[in-house]
Amino acid sequence: MIAAGHAGELGASVILLEKNDRLGIKLLITGKGRCNITNAEEDLKKLVNAYGKNGKFLYPALNNFSNKDVVNFFESRGIKTDVERGNRVFPQSGNAKDVLDCLKQYLKEGGVKIEFKCPVEKIILKNGRNIEKIILKNGRNIVADKYLIATGGKSYPGTGSTGDAYEWLRKIGHNVIEPKPALTPIVVREDFVKKLEGLSLKNVEVSLWEKRKIISYFGEALFTHNGLSGPVILNLSKAINGIKKQDLKIKIDFKPALDYAALDKRIQRDFEEQKNKHYKNSLDKLLPKKLIPIIIELSEIEKNKKVNEIKKIERKKILKLLKEFTLHVKGLAGFDKAIVTSGGVGLKEVDPKTMKSKIIDNLYFSGEILDIDGPTGGYNLQAAWSTGYLAGENSSRV
What is the 3-state secondary structure (H, E, C) of 157-199? Predict the structure, then answer.
């Protein structure tokens, strides 16, 4: 939408082919329906680094249409924004539909013709270096001077993102890096997580381990029926995607503000205040109610034992469970639960200054179809806006 709108704004005659019966189905579910339009990180280098090893590819796109430009784009069209924790930028209305309506108006102003229910069957080349036409599944041919692919990846296939373009592109000579689900819930081996389903954790530190700590994040997490989700888990899943090791563990620190010594004193103080209570009734001040039976079970301390009878070695076990609650990674949830797709069109085959294919002379790319993805927090929509705007700009030039 941003690419088509900008190309139309610059005077190009644009037709937007939409697979679905309406625009922006996936946009409407971003940010839990609130649409986290960008991240307000002011340092361009830090912004780029958030995308990992492929982030440098975005420098020209971000310089051309930055996160500040995105905010200005929407605010100038009546969508006021707020910056929330983690520099996440949302419309003040908290409604993704407002963002979609704004883009629809942008398309209208640019004179963009939109055709719905138009899935593409294949791309036909001439002379090996130019697209001659595209053939739709209904048999129609679409002929244009320039073509721009912004079909996204394979995440949330119910929205229409089913990776269709990968096969068309392979057939015309493009290399497609294997698509994998990214920013997705993590499945663990422990069955007891079923009992914790729905438990939301705030201000925890979650780290990924093999023989040593690989990476950690601080923030919110959520137990699911077979593992973990929530912002810190989704970001952790991106790291798991790039690791071939099998023996991966997740450790949760429920009390990251306290080191071991301080937390031990806190436990001792609580136990002293409740010395005549049973162990099973002594952890209410430390933990969410749903988590207490699991901690009791894993500590292997008799639940009806009086608190004043708990030995130092037993208390140390409780301490370790609170600081290093360990779960073993079984795998990642699939594309149906993934927020974005990792992989896509190899960046060596795309000019970062124009978003033009280096393989096909009249083909451009934008968004998630490219082999670039970022963490949660508005980064992936920013990449879509920036690459889309740049692609729209360059593909509209004669």
Answer: HHHCCCCHHHHHHHHCCCCEEEEEEECCCEEECCHHHHHHCCC
pTM score above 0.70: yes
Contact in structure between 388 and 27 (CB atoms under 8 Å) = no
CA dist 312 and 375 (Å) reads 41
Looking at 3.50.50.60, 3.40.190.80, 3.30.200.20, 3.30.70.1130, the CATH number of the domain 2-181+341-395 comes to: 3.50.50.60
Tell me which of 1.10.8.50, 3.40.50.2000, 3.90.226.10, 1.10.3210.10 is the CATH number of domain 185-333: 1.10.8.50
Instruction: Say if strands 340-345 and 227-229 run parallel, antiparallel, or are unpaired.
Output: unpaired
Instruction: At 237, list the tokens.
Output: 């899943």
Annotated domain spans of the chain? 2-181+341-395, 185-333
Phi-psi region of 218 (alpha: psi -120 to 50; beta: other; left: phi over 0): beta
pLDDT digits (tens, 9 = 90+) for 23-65: 999 999 999 999 999 999 999 999 999 999 999 999 999 999 9
Distance, in Å, from the CA atom of 94 to the CA atom of 80, rounded to the nearest integer, reads: 10
What's the gap between Cα 133 and its chain centre? 33
